[in-house]
Each structure stands twice: as structure tokens, then as C-alpha cells.
TrEMBL record:
It comes from Flagellimonas algicola. SMART domains: HTH_ARAC (SM00342). PANTHER family: ARAC-FAMILY TRANSCRIPTIONAL REGULATOR (PTHR43280), TRANSCRIPTIONAL REGULATOR MTLR (PTHR43280:SF27). SUPFAM superfamilies: Homeodomain-like, RmlC-like cupins. This is AraC family transcriptional regulator.
Length: 295
């Protein structure tokens, strides 16, 4: 894949891009862009990568992604696990008409929040409910109403103070587009092929590097080893299947790329602190209860 970054979607007459999207699935590339991004899922579930953080997304998730922070939301296309997605995406920059809007004294508290978004921010259920109506309106708004609603949403996010950071503080943000295509190819390949046996030599070849050089490169860019990153992707997918599917655990083990059940159970417990069966039990009523939080 040659994609390096996503350019602005804002029109020549607007500073804010806000839209509601319905898709049978979400995929795309691990990408970054100069805009801040708010993404709010009204329906759907799958895998999420924000910087060096890998986990799952579910209905009701609200995330604020900072400038240049690489991210990816993905679920399966087709198959029994596919679920239609319905989400709102808002993209905006700090510059409005050539002026840094968030540098004015009245908005410095929002500027501080946007700085924290360098790591990606995942907001609580309470906070999501407080901005639900504003986000729905923002996706349909025009002209000055967009800015008014965006500031309203950001103000409520600041006031709530109920969020967690996602990416680690040492994750290396891509300051320049040039040179990042190599990492994009690697992340895209991992996210699309994690169920297969991905050898170090093979992934190093995709990056056009020797294995030792690739290991140093990947650790510098992501603050993680290749094997750790790959296992996080696999365990994230396993969690999704455990929560939303009825497949047997020994089948899930092989479906996400592990070659033995023993290795899968040991790796899963090292990441989640409990066994796959205990994890499934703890989410036995997930869809019946948690999916009702946004009307």
C-alpha cells in the first residue's frame, strides 16, 4: 500500500468536516493526518489501534485523536462476525481562517485537552451521553452552527475529566510524511494478516530491511517489539470474538493466528490477567446490557 497520510477533507468554504457514516464494515489503512479527529460509534464493533495502543471498539465508543497520531478502526468484511457500522466523524484543525482559535484565553482549557489528545483519549459512558445529542446535530449542521456545536462538545469533554489516554507517552509521532510509508506497509500487513504465520524475515522484507534493522526500526517507531505488537493484535481480535461470537475457544485460538491452545491461553492471560474462558464469562451479557447505553 502506498498511502502515507490522509489529506484534509474540509471544503474550501469550511474549517470543520463532520459527517455520519453508515458502512457494512470499517477497514481502511493505519493512517494519520494533520487534523484532530473525534470518532463516535453508534453501532459496530471491532479492533482499534491508536498509536501503540491496541484494543477493541464497541457501540458507544467516543475517542479524540490528536494531530498526526496514527490510528485504525477495523472489523471484518463479510462472515458471521461482521456487524454494520454507524459512526460520526468530526475533523478539525487548530487554525480557523489563519488564526489559532485555541490560543485565545477563553479556550486555553480546550487547548490543554487537545494537547493530551496527542496520545488519544477514550471517554467514559457518562461523558459520551453528555455529548450524544450535540454530536448528532453536528453531523447535520451547516455554517456557523458547526463551530458552535464543536466548541460545545469540546467544552463538555473538558468539564467531564472522565477519560483515559490510549497511546503511550513515548510513542514516536510521524512529524514528516516522508519515510513513514514503510511503517504504514508493516502495520497494514499485520492488521490484515495477523491470522497467518507472519515470520520476522517476511515482515522485514515488506519493510525492505534486514531483520535486525527492522527490529530496531519498529521498536523506535512503536515503542514495542514486532512480536509483542503482533500478539496484541491477535489478542485484541480474540477478545472481540469471545465477546461477540459463539465460536469455541480452541477454534478462536487458531482463527487469530496461534498454533497451539497452550500458547494462546498463556499469551491471553499475560495480556488480560484472566483466561479466555473467564474473559468470555465476564462479558456473557455484554450485548444485552452495554449495547443499550446509547439510545
Amino acid at each position: 500500500m502506498k498511502l502515507q497520510f490522509k489529506s484534509s477533507e474540509q471544503g474550501s468554504l469550511g474549517s470543520i468536516c463532520a459527517k455520519r457514516i453508515y458502512r457494512p464494515h470499517v477497514g481502511g489503512d493505519w493512517h494519520f493526518h494533520k487534523e484532530f479527529e473525534i470518532i463516535y460509534f453508534l453501532k459496530g464493533h471491532g479492533m482499534r489501534i491508536v498509536g501503540d495502543h491496541i484494543s477493541n471498539f464497541q457501540k458507544g465508543e467516543l475517542v479524540l485523536v490528536g494531530e498526526w497520531l496514527p490510528h485504525l478502526w477495523r472489523n471484518d468484511e463479510g462472515g458471521l462476525e461482521a456487524v454494520a457500522t454507524d459512526f460520526i466523524v468530526i475533523k478539525f484543525t487548530r487554525m480557523f481562517g489563519g488564526v489559532d482559535l485555541f490560543s485565545i484565553p477563553e479556550l486555553l482549557h480546550i487547548k490543554a485537552l487537545l494537547k493530551e489528545a496527542d496520545q488519544g483519549l477514550l471517554f467514559s459512558k457518562k461523558t459520551r451521553k453528555s455529548v450524544h445529542e450535540d454530536l448528532l446535530k453536528l453531523a447535520e449542521a451547516e455554517s456557523s452552527e458547526k463551530l458552535i456545536l464543536l466548541l460545545s462538545v469540546l467544552q463538555k469533554l473538558v468539564v467531564s475529566k472522565e477519560y483515559q489516554t490510549l497511546s503511550g507517552p513515548n510513542f514516536s509521532l510521524p512529524k514528516e510524511v516522508a519515510g513513514e510509508n514503510r511503517l504504514h506497509k508493516v502495520i497494514n500487513h499485520i492488521s490484515a494478516n495477523f491470522a497467518r504465520d507472519i515470520k520476522l524475515n517476511d515482515i522485514a522484507e515488506i519493510a525492505a530491511m534486514t531483520p535486525p534493522a527492522f527490529c530496531r526500526f519498529f521498536k523506535t517507531r512503536t515503542n514495542k517489539t514486532f512480536s509483542l505488537f503482533l500478539n496484541e493484535v491477535r489478542i485484541s481480535k480474540a477478545c472481540q470474538l469471545l465477546i461477540n461470537g459463539e465460536a469455541a475457544i480452541n477454534q478462536i485460538c487458531y482463527d487469530v493466528g496461534f498454533s497451539s491452545l497452550t500458547n494462546f491461553n498463556r499469551t491471553f492471560k499475560s495480556f488480560k490477567g484472566i483466561s479466555p474462558s473467564s474473559y468470555r464469562d465476564s462479558y456473557s451479557n455484554f450485548r444485552q446490557h452495554n449495547f443499550k447505553e446509547v439510545s
